[in-house]
Records
---
Amino acid sequence: GIDHWAMVDEIPPDDDVTYNSTETLNAVDTFQTEPAPVAGVNVVAMQVIYDVRRTESGNTSTAPVFRVGGVNYAGTAQGNTSTYTFQRGIWTRNPATLAAITDTVFNASSVGYKKTA
């Protein structure tokens, strides 16, 4: 779909009803988050959770992404081991500066995933 967020915002996931897909290695898709619920404090941790469907045989993997200041910071790639796999990545520091994640940085960032294999 054109509006990628609308294709993946269901809780719980609707599996094959709406989804984003790519065969392009290193493709990244990120999404804006809702603002931090409290202003003027640091974010203790930011977690990306996503559901991946493997449609091809062989090894596939994806990595969580935290986009800060227009730069994508990918976490550790994780193998997609079954038809549907939940993956996650956690950041406790701003990957651009290694400082705390401020509410301002969090509000200006986006999160997503990267196809790594």
---
Amino acid sequence: MNGSYAESSVKKKVTTTDTMKKVGLITLAVVCLLAGLIVHLLMLVVGMAMIGLCFYLIPKFDIMYEYIFCDGQLDFDKIMGGAKRKNMLRVDFEKVVAVAPANSHALDGYRHDKVKVYDFSSLEPDHKKYGLVTKEGDQSILVYFEPDEKMVEVIKKKDPRKFSEY
């Protein structure tokens, strides 16, 4: 390889919505168990199934995004619970229109309703977030992500005309 490889990862911040979903699942499981003890034995079976569902679903709220840049392709993977990996998006840099910091004016023309937006960032306000615009057919896609310095340098080297510092 000629040095056009970089990888980076960020852990997604746990949001209030995620916490409320976890609390709701646990509460529903406890209510079903208590109803099974008090009302009917069938609810006890439902409560046990809910506990199993909690063990399956709650780790899925622990999300990490991994970015892999290799020879002109940037892959965005989602890792749930530290175990399950899912490829969310693959971007070919031949189709990339622009890469810039998220608050850059270079991305202003792509912040409207007709653009599909993906956010693969940590949601932390103090982290440096970048936006990447690509075309899939006639559809524009805006991707927010947080590359490290090595990945930024590799992207700059790949196509410096598409990269904006401001």
---
Amino acid sequence: MNHISKGGNAPVPTGAMDVNVIIGTGSADMSAYLLDAAGKVRGDGDMVFYNQPESPDGEVRLTVGTFTVDLARVAPAVQRIAFCAIPEFGTVADLKSID
């Protein structure tokens, strides 16, 4: 398992993988955004979160605290996937990371 610090990047495998966002203290809503070459979502389906836990083609799915991503199924127009943690209370500074 690879651990990535806040703002970090890492190479990923080409198949399916799980992405876990671990919050040390506090609680946060998790979301993922499928971004095109301009860094924009193409529409509502490119946003995965608690109220829309799966992208239309099923390439990104959210279950309790874990995203399952099947990179082989991601459309060629999607250049990046951004994973976000949004605090339920307070500010981002109130969340503590585990390194």
---
Amino acid sequence: MSKIRAFIIRNDRVIQRLLEILPGFFSWNLILFPYWGILVIPNVVAYFILSYNIYWFYQSAQIAVSAAISHFKIQASMAYDWLADLKVFPDWKKVHHVIIIPTYKEPLHILERTLESIANQTMPKDQITIALAMEGKEPEEDRLIKVKALESKYGNVFGNFLICVHTLVPGEVAGKASNERFAALEVKEKLINSGKIPIEYSIVTSCDADHVYHKNHFSYLAYLFLDDPHRYEHFWQPAVLFYNNIWKIPAITRIINSIGSIVHIALLSRKDRLINMSNYSLSFKLLDDVDYWDADKIPEDWGIFFKSYYKKQGKIEVEPLYLPIYADAAQGESLAKTLRNEYEQKRRWAWGASDDPWIIKNYFLTPGVPFWDKTLRVLYALQSHFLWPVHFFIITIGLQLPILLNPRFAKTALGYTVPKLSSFVLSCALVFLLIMLLLDRIYKPKRPKEFPLWRAILSPLEYFLMPVAGFFFSALPGLDAHTRLMLGKYIEYKVTEKV
């Protein structure tokens, strides 16, 4: 292992570039394999397609079962009096929530909606600090109008209300990570170093500007924090549901966001796969120990997890917080802008593959991390990123198009049987889709009056759009991100438009 470390360090730039090529190389080859393989090794292609469909059946089953388990726990947590349990701890008044809200050009009403959900918490508001993380490149006049309105309405509601204006410096890239890092350092300087809040009892929450909390969220989080003997080695993750504006977006993007929301519910019950994302919390002490988010990276959620994981030699875990957080799905002022925003958002998420070179290198460079644990963690990260663009092509197209290139194989027993077996397996998986549909109905907000009743009744039929939606808003943006990374055409961070 020491020789591998020395080799990586000695050839860092070359290895970095090769590892950047790896996600695109893998996904493109896996997608194209059935088309050339059907001419050379048709039997292998057939078994590959069948195995992949069985794998997809298993994934659908575990999502449905895990989502059902999470659902019951979420319902219990929503009804429970977490503040009463929190008060059992003699030091509960020392707990302080630092909520960092990065924002860039979000409309005032979006920010007010988020802050109002925090103001309605059962947690005492004097134990909450708001750090509104704004960007200096936003037009000053627009920024000051929002600051004035928000300070007037919420400045005296919370224990502290900080306005942090971040300006990019050399070595940083525009994005959530650099903005949050600046805001966290401002909080440390103004509140922690001055002794106003204790770092040992401070919990940092990364909150997008469009997120809406359940009223029990921060009482529940404080309880989990105090009840956890390993509180400085844990993240806490709720279920992020893209339902705030779900009735305002077109059917083709509504289905993508509905399925994504149910997957987030399911992940809470899978601690082996749970990695913090979008909205999450950790102790300020852990954040300080690992030197905050990396300002030179676009992906920040998985980035801060693996940075903490390696620095703490594998002792980091993500604990589920069984409550929903409602977020905005990508939307624009027109249908075309909505579709474009959805595509760009999914491409930015798929750009998480740019973390893979760093994750892989540190797998070999970081000593003291348990071998099997780090191996499973890294394999799950690579599976999530590498297979992102692949699913659509294998599941939807399967052997149908490749067989057109080799019609002789279609007449063999294997060529005849495998497509039928694959179809049967995928049809069985529709049972799990029904469970997801039921959960979607439970968590989706009620139909607004302006949304026609007949469209709501027919909404289950929207799922027939899954193949089209899967191609344009999963496979294609994923392949776009992989290809750009492979070619060294790095993307810039683009904030999803809010309306």
